[in-house]
Amino acid sequence: MKILAKLIIIFSFIILPVQAASFDVLVLPADLLNVKENYYGFDEVSEIIANDIIDNFNSSNGKIKSPEPAQIKGKIYQDTNLKTTISNTLKKYKFNDKVDYQSLKEIGRQFSCDYVLLVSGNVITNKNSLKRSIWEILEISTAFDINYPYRLETSIVLIDTINDIVMWSNHYSIKIGGNDNTFEAKNYAQANEILNKIRVYSKKIIAKSTSQNIILRFYPQSLRTINKEIKDSDGGALKFDKTIPDNPKQEIPEDEFFGDMIYGI
Questions:
Q1: CB under 8 Å to 149, separation ≥6 — which residues?
Q2: Going by C-beta distance under 8 Å and a sequence separation of 6 or more, which residues neighbour residue 230?
Q3: Please, what is the end-to-end C-alpha distance for the chain in angstroms?
Q4: What residues form DSSP beta bridges with 124?
Q5: What is the pLDDT of residues 174-212, one digit of tens each?
Q6: How confident is residue 104, by pLDDT bands cut at 50, 70 and 90?
Q7: What confidence tens digit (pLDDT) does each residue in 3-54 have?
Q8: Which phi-psi region, left, alpha or beta, contains residue 210 (left: φ > 0; alpha: ψ -120 to 50)?
Q9: DSSP letters along 213-236, please?
């Protein structure tokens, strides 16, 4: 009987699946604590991208878990000191591209996350390199009929807060504006059309690429890698003809690990 019991125990260990480790990643958009003061009341680009990344993480079959935006804000507004720390940390990253490792370590601890992902999205003009909100640029361009080739710049960095190192980072850039460099919306419908294109750009390009690459950092064998080049749009207001259609067709749901890696550092 003893021999039979031992065999049963050994056999159970062989046939039971091994549960892979789950990694907790806190995703913080640089505009997390900003009041939506833009004319349209739209979410900022960093928030849109961060929300898509969080959705991807929490749909990865337990590979990566991430606190939901409402959960993050709820905890922040209950703790004044935490709110101040996060606000200062995000400002440093948004305006100076500076990563405050010491603050991120404490922030990660507060959310029981060893990894923090920072997301920043800005429009930078060639004239003065001033970082502005995309909706601020839209309002200015619409009000003053400004024709100028703006670019939407997005920076993302994954920090290991235990070891104070950058695990992965990437920068995305795309032209916004028509072929004549106009970038304006005379009414809400036109502005909402631009918002929808930004959402497509976030979901299909930035969030997908980011999720793929970060999963690869934690699970190197999870994805099949191929060489895949993504080119900037050659015109059109947030027009992505070479990558995705303005009105993408309904796709078959992807499997649990998001497909092929696109690129990353």
A1: 126, 175, 177, 181
A2: 205, 209, 243, 262, 263
A3: 57
A4: 131, 151
A5: 888 777 777 788 888 888 888 999 999 999 999 999 999
A6: very high
A7: 655 555 554 444 444 445 789 999 999 999 987 767 778 899 999 999 999 9
A8: alpha
A9: HHHHHH-TTSS-B-----PPPSSS
Q: What are the structure tokens assigned to 109, written together?
A: 């601890």
Q: Domains in the chain, please, with CATH? A: 21-218 (3.30.160)
Distance CA 158, CA 118 (A): 7
Q: Is the confidence at residue 237, as pLDDT, over 90?
A: no
CA-nearest of 223, 217, 260 to 21 is: 217
Of the spans 19-23, 79-83, 228-232, 241-245, which averages the highest pLDDT? Answer: 79-83
Name beta bridge partners: 166: 159
Task: Write the single-letter amino acid at 27.
Answer: V
Which residue type sits at 245? P
What letter does residue 262 receive in the DSSP assignment? -
**Tokens standing for residue 5:** 């019991």
Rounded to whole angstroms, how far apart are CA atoms 86 and 90? 6
